[in-house]
Write a structure and sequence with these properties.
Blueprint: E1 3-13, E2 20-24, H1 33-42, E3 55-61, E4 65-76, E5 82-92, H2 93-100, H3 103-108, E6 118-119, E7 123-126, H4 135-142, H5 169-180, E8 184-188, H6 194-202, H7 206-209, E9 214-215, E10 227-230, E11 241-243, H8 244-248, H9 254-265, H10 268-276, H11 280-305, H12 315-328
Parallel strand pairs: 2-6, 8-10, 8-11, 9-10
Antiparallel strand pairs: 1-2, 1-5, 1-7, 3-4, 4-5
Helix pairs in contact: 5-6, 5-9, 9-10
Length: 334
C-alpha cells in the first residue's frame, strides 16, 4: 500500500521572543524553517492574560506543501509568562488535498512529546482517503448547544432542552454555506474552541476541506484564516468575514438546505451526494475552463479548416454588379 510521509518539527517560543527549533525529523527541510517561523509569528502574541491550552491550525507551507500546526502553552519561562510550543506537521499539498484534508484528524492521530530535543522520526500515513462523514456525525453537530448558553456547572454532553436561542446549528449551517459561497468566518472566544471548528468542518463538502485554512484559535488573524477563533476582533481588517451572529442569519442556500434535509431524513446516500458535490466556486471555475476550451476549439477550427479567402472586387466593380442586379430585376440570374 502506498504511504504518505509526514515530516515534523518542534519549536518553543518564549514570551515576545523568536521561536527556537528544538527537534525535527531528518526530512524537515532547512528551507521550510523560515516559512514555519512565519506561521508561528502569524499566530500572534498573547495579551491580556489570554491562554492557549491547545490550538490547531493549517496553512500552506510554500506552494507544494501544507503545514498542520498545534500550539500549546508550556511552563513559564524566565519572563514569567507561559512559553508557547508549536508542533509542525508537513506533507505535500497533493497528499493533503487528496487523502487528508482534515487537520483535526491528522492532529488527533499523531502524538507529541512537547519536551523532545534533537531528532524526531518521520511519520507515515496510509495513502487513502479518510472515512466518510456519517449521518450520525452530522446529526451530533447539529444538536450542539452554544457554549455561552451553559452554566459553568453544566455538562455540555448532558441532555439539554434545545431552543432557537441556545442552539448552535443556525450558525454552523449558515457558516457552512458562507464557506461554500467563498466567504470567511470569525468567532470570538476567550480560548480555543476545537469542537466548534471541527463541527463546522464536518458539515463541509469533501472537495472544499483541503482548500481552505482553519484555526481553532489564534491570538491574531495575521495569517488570514478562512475560519478562525480569536479572543477579540481588535483593529485588524475583517473585510469579507462573517461573524457568528451574521452566519446564523445568513440566507439558506441550496447546499445548506440539501445538507439539513439529508441529515434530518437520516439518508446516508443523499448525504454522501451532498458532500461530494462541487462548490459554487468550483462550478464557476469549471464553466470558465469549458468556455476557454470551446473558444480555443472555435478559433482553431477557423484557422485550420477555413477555405481560401473570398474574392474582393474593387469598389467600381461592386457598383457595376449592383447596377446590373437592379436593371435585370432578378438578383439570382444577375
Amino acid at each position: 500500500m502506498a504511504e504518505i510521509v509526514i515530516e515534523q518539527a518542534l519549536f518553543r517560543r518564549e514570551h515576545e521572543q523568536a521561536p527556537e527549533l528544538t527537534a525535527r525529523s531528518p526530512g524537515f527541510a532547512d528551507d521550510w524553517l523560515p516559512e514555519a517561523q512565519r506561521l508561528m509569528a502569524g499566530f500572534g502574541e498573547r495579551s491580556g492574560g489570554v491562554t492557549c491550552p491547545l490550538a490547531v491550525f493549517a496553512q500552506p507551507l510554500k506552494p507544494e506543501h501544507v503545514a498542520v500546526v498545534r500550539a500549546a502553552d508550556q511552563a513559564a519561562g524566565p519572563s514569567g509568562w507561559p512559553a508557547l510550543a508549536f508542533h509542525v506537521l508537513v506533507c505535500t499539498r497533493a497528499d493533503y488535498e487528496k487523502h487528508l484534508s482534515d487537520p483535526f484528524a491528522l492532529a488527533q492521530r499523531t502524538s507529541v512529546a512537547w519536551s523532545s530535543r534533537g531528532e524526531l522520526p518521520a511519520l507515515v500515513w496510509p495513502a487513502e482517503p479518510l472515512p466518510g462523514t456519517t449521518v450520525a456525525q452530522v446529526q451530533a453537530v447539529l444538536q450542539r448547544v452554544k457554549a455561552g448558553a451553559l452554566r459553568e456547572d453544566e455538562d455540555p454532553e448532558a441532555e439539554i432542552e434545545r431552543t432557537i436561542e441556545n442552539s448552535e446549528s443556525p450558525a454552523l449551517l449558515g457558516g457552512a454555506q458562507v464557506l461554500v459561497d467563498g466567504g470567511k468566518l470569525v468567532f470570538i472566544r476567550k480560548g480555543p474552541d476545537p469542537a466548534l471548528v471541527e463541527g463546522l468542518w464536518t458539515l463541509l463538502p469533501y472537495s472544499l476541506r483541503g482548500k481552505i485554512w482553519p484555526a481553532t484559535f489564534a491570538f491574531t488573524n495575521d495569517l488570514g484564516f478562512d475560519v478562525v477563533v480569536v479572543p477579540r476582533v481588535g483593529e485588524a481588517t475583517w473585510a469579507g468575514y462573517t461573524t457568528e451572529e451574521q452566519a446564523a442569519g445568513y440566507p439558506a442556500g441550496s447546499y445548506e438546505l440539501a445538507l439539513q434535509t439529508a441529515a434530518e431524513a437520516g439518508d446516508q446516500a443523499e448525504l454522501n451526494a451532498v458532500f461530494s458535490r462541487r462548490t459554487s466556486n468550483e462550478t464557476l471555475r469549471l464553466a470558465w475552463h469549458i468556455l476557454i476550451v470551446m473558444a480555443i476549439l472555435v478559433i482553431g477550427s477557423q484557422l485550420f479548416l477555413s477555405g481560401p479567402p473570398p474574392t474582393v472586387f474593387p469598389r467600381e466593380r461592386r457598383a457595376a454588379l449592383a447596377a446590373g442586379v437592379v436593371a435585370v430585376g432578378d438578383p439570382w440570374t444577375a
